[in-house]
Specification:
Two copies of one chain form a homodimer. The first copy, chain A, has 407 residues and is an alpha+beta fold. Helices cover 33% and strands 27% of the residues of chain A.
Chain lengths: 407, 407
């Protein structure tokens, strides 16, 4: 497996583009994106677990029921959530508009939105720009870049990746883009992620691979504990790589599923790193748990703790807060056997052994925690399962960004 | 029922005091408190649900098993948590030292600590100051004030109250003090609360009244979602009011339980108001739920949401975040029937009807949300149960306070 350029346009047969249509009224930043496959695709998707679901989520879920897609249309600047019947009509209209440009069915188009909640979507802006959008799509990296820019809100970095691997002698590519920086919590909140591949898979296997990858990537990211109304991940597979259709578990499926997981983990880490106001990527690496579910739950409690996050911002080796967060995770474990390490490119330091303090150099710990990527490593000595969870620190800027988001 | 002065010293037969013994090494702020009853007390208590329990919690739980107490000794500046066997020995020693001063049994003394986790408790400082502490206790408001100061950490306000009511022709008093400002979440985190009363109750009824009051007060406060290793609430009843022993539910019990609930709600609100870095008290008032548990769970999700809290800081009428938080609370409700109001002393404004936006004056909403005490009122139209939850906004200062707490 090797990295390649081009994001969602890296796999054969996909084109993408993004323009400004006027939804982001205060700027001329791109706000409307399209990803299109020249051939019909097998598709799979996962949506927010929030009981309040945005209109595009409801519409895309409907369209995905067939397991087939040709395109995704997405806008930023407006979430089209809590917008009632007019919102639902607007989401359907978005799919129709995109379908009209390519003479495909509206049911073959998925829809996604991100931005402020509760404001009517200015569908007229999309109507008047849909032809320009369709004309703008390209099969190269520039097309991918334009689409990616058009789904960004408070994101400060472009988050995308693409890989190439060989399956049955054929070169297969998987490419993805993700947007999301605030309101991110296990279960993919305010995240839009679009993945393309030229591999040939049955819908069932594609769905299985997606669920496995999401569980170990996006569902292990936490920025602020809020789960959004809009999160969506969609994967489209058009089979252009020419590999024998993957229709059952086996070597080919294993290779594909692992590559997809690697790609999703990379995107998930990038999202945590780009958490609103974040100055550090914090990886919580929990080992020695009785099972993977327990490991994940404990690691998430640490990564999501406001007190741990604030300590990371201050590069303060306050390991007591780590133990405290483990303690309220709702999972049984033995605090008296628990060891905690802080690590980064600057080194590693043991700060707690058997649930109690050990002497360590505060200066060394400060240096370790002052890096841009830090790790909290926890060893429970209670089993052989492990989980990694990604989060970020809690900074002044998080408050600043979210204190007046709508203005 | 009327308010009276004197806090925990308001009920007859209680004395209290607080001194500086040197645990808070960097300042001369009081750090050691004692509350003492001249007569034996019936007692009840509740402790943290965190699996990591501080040594004083373990010791107090043991001592409370008998249901009898004479005194509480408490320190600030050090949580005596994650301190292993030496920590446990230090907590036991604190009880012994207090008992020695009054010729009572160590088992009649409860112990509490609050402060930094994982640092050995300097028990020698307590040993050398215990006589001064015992000598300092007084039955007046000054004694109460000194004890209250000695349990404060990042608290910026003194939080105490006392009430008087009549039960069976006798004047009964209940007084309380509470410390807590950060790391506060449902289940009383990093909260120390001591309540005294001169009412006569059986242990069983005292315990019942305490649990009822805590459920509707301290367990409905959220500051940052973290639940501490140390939280403790203890109530002592010495019977000095001369009322007929309350040994069964009935009018007398009802009067006492309600007064205790009123007192605890007042202390809980004060605690939320004093949340670390808080500029506003936020009351989430949820109505129309199918049951009280559901109402509480939904209201807590709103009060605990970092995005809602940051919007409150910015006085931003971002009601979409309220709906979003309701949506991930894990409770079934109908978003399309939900109304949301923002209210304060400056007025009330409907911002969401039936899950969708309604026109409102942004200027008016801003004015309402700019007050020091604001209310988010939610009407689900799905039943007749209600719950109130108290929280605060999320400000720059929260991050500042917690970014380098240990220094």
């Amino acid at each position: 497996m090797r990295d390649v350029e081009g994001g969602v346009c890296a796999p054969r047969g996909f084109r993408a583009g993004g323009i400004w249509c006027g939804i982001k009224a205060g700027s001329r930043k791109r706000d409307l994106a399209l990803i299109y496959s020249d051939k019909p695709c097998t598709a799979a998707a996962m949506f927010t677990s929030n009981r309040v679901k945005a209109a595009p989520v409801l519409v895309s879920r409907e369209h995905l029921a067939s397991g087939l897609l040709r395109a995704v249309i997405a806008n930023s600047g407006n979430a089209n959530a809590c917008t009632g019947e007019p919102g639902l009509a607007a989401a359907r209209r978005m799919a129709e508009l995109a379908a009209g440009e390519f003479a495909i069915k509206a049911g073959e188009v998925a829809v996604a939105s991100t931005g402020v909640i509760g404001v009517p979507l200015p569908i007229a802006a999309i109507e008047s720009s849909i032809s320009s959008l369709a004309d703008s799509i390209r099969a190269d990296a520039a097309g991918h870049e334009a689409a990616l820019e058009a789904i960004m809100t408070t994101d400060t970095r472009k988050k995308a990746a693409a890989v190439e691997l060989e399956i049955g002698g054929k070169k297969v590519r998987i490419g993805g883009m993700v947007k999301g920086s605030g309101m991110i919590h296990p279960n993919m909140a305010t995240m839009l992620c679009f993945v393309t591949t030229d591999a040939a898979l049955s819908g069932e296997l594609l769905d299985r691979a997606l669920r496995r990858a999401v569980r170990r990537s996006f569902n292990r990211v936490t920025v602020d504990g809020d789960t959004s109304t809009n999160d969506t991940i969609i994967i489209m597979a058009n089979g252009e790589a020419g590999n024998a259709l993957i229709g059952a578990e086996g070597e080919a499926y294993g290779l594909f599923a692992e590559a997809l997981e690697v790609l999703c983990v990379r995107l998930a880490r990038a999202m945590a790193r780009d958490g609103e106001g974040a100055t550090r990527l914090v990886t919580v690496n929990l080992q020695g748990a009785p099972g993977e579910d327990e490991a994940e739950c404990l690691a998430k409690a640490v990564a999501a703790s406001s007190l741990v996050k604030a300590a990371c911002f201050g590069a303060d080796a306050n390991w007591g807060r780590v133990l405290c967060a483990l303690g309220y995770a709702g999972v049984d474990f033995d605090p008296d056997k628990t060891d905690v390490y802080f690590a980064s490119s600057a080194g590693e330091v043991l700060v707690c052994r058997g649930g109690a303090s050990v002497p360590f150099s505060e200066e060394e710990a400060k240096k370790i925690l002052s890096q841009e990527e830090i790790e909290i490593r926890i060893e429970l000595h209670g089993g052989s399962a492990a989980a990694q969870v990604w989060g970020c620190d809690l900074s002044y800027d998080y408050v600043k960004i979210n204190g007046d988001y709508r203005s």
